[in-house]
Amino acid sequence: MLDKLNQIYPVRYTAFIASVVLLVFTLLGAGVTGLSGWWPFLFLVLSGIGWYDLQQTRHAILRNYPVIGHLRFMLETIRPEIRQYFLESETDASPFSRAQRTLVYARAKGESDKRPFGTQLDVRGLGYEWINHSIAPSKLEHHDFRVRVGGADCTQPYSMSLFNVSAMSFGALSANAIMALNLGAKLGGFAHDTGEGSISRHHRTHGGDLIWEIGSGYFGCRDADGHFSPERFVENVRSPQVKMVEIKLSQGAKPGHGGVLPGPKVTEEIAEARGVGIGEDCISPASHSSFSTPLELMQFVKQLRTLSEGKPVGIKLCIGHPWEWFGIVKAIRESGIAPDFIVVDGAEGGTGAAPLEFSDHMGMPLQEGLRLVHNTLVGVGLRDQIRLGASGKIVSAFDMARALALGADWCNSARGFMFALGCIQAQTCHTGNCPTGVTTQDPQRQMALVVPSKAERVHQFHAHTLEALQELMQASGLHAPSDITPRHIMRRVSERQTLHLSELVDTLATGALLQDDLSVLPSVFQDWPQASAAHF
User: Which residues lie closer than 8 Å to 196 by C-beta, 6 or more apart?
Assistant: First the structure.
């Protein structure tokens, strides 16, 4: 067994294997080598620790790195003292600082997320945000906030949690990660977005609610030529587990890019889920083949809603050219066909396979994109008919509160739930060597991720984050998530000035885009008159 492990994992199991070998060596050759006394005891302890690490289900790091993995946790215990030597800061440029990862880990594990000595953020720094509290706090009965998704043409509306798993495909994530996310969603009563990789056998194992994302590759509902297949679509969408269908137009991290999963990575399980051949290149084109105009997109929405027997059908996009988004809104009005929901994906969203220029400089950030979508729907009188979801580096309850203030009805999180699974942001997603088993297809590595244990962490992260949102709302004197407005959020814009978020974002009145005089509208709407439902 040890020889086999050493052959497969020459590095990760070295400390454990060496401990066992040295234990045997000292026991058999103590008289010859003089290695006696406490040496055998030391190697016995290390061997025992390694064996325990392989059997325990709490820490994926220790299952993948027996014995030596404990060094990471030892360093964590003294991190506050050594942070200055590593030049770490809780106010670094990344929104996902160590403090936020620690917050997720604590909530996922059911541990205290309280922190002494007040804020560690620079409250005088540019961009610092806070939510105003009330002298008369409110009292909310529960934290299980829900929103009903489904318009007039929807016969199977869905009661959506305000916090859900954002789109991450099987193939990008491991089988165990998918199963843990879905079981966590089942336990907590929230939704799990499949990502464009479609519905795999691992999504079906535990029966958690699914949002089926359909991208330009039509995985899970494609014919032999890669075009949309109504017959294949019906086979999957009629499952009671599928609660909503999401047409992905673009994703925040690499909008308009497309992608290819190379043939050698297309395993039997991935091929089965996506409807492609084993070992064949799996191509996601940059654009859809089922429609080429906004009006055709609305017809596609109607077709999917009909084939699904009335389940909510919506679109997901990262906002790019505003006039293309305006064309979609005009197509809704002209056709009389409205998506049941729209998910706005911010350009700050993550992925394991985006060119640097795309991830850093392509697409509209969530704040601007979400507010534009919200205002446009308000401006044409459609906002009450269409629900809005938001995704893009949403992890904490305050992140949610900000998105709700900007117009979202619910929020999706990818990275937050990855942290709950145990992701340590090793940034080796593309190599297949993920140390925690989250983003690898290596069957041995992903065995470190124990599904029941991680599913409970996913469940707890969801619940405790919504509890934190409840506490924020109570402290602000609010009674429902829809009560959160831009006037409740403050932002420091200079050393001497802070403004309400309402002073930093545009706000349109109902029907404002239907008026004759559009000169008074914000400049972002200057392309509204030229936008057309007949073309993007």
Answer: 167, 169, 213, 214, 215, 216, 217, 219, 248, 284
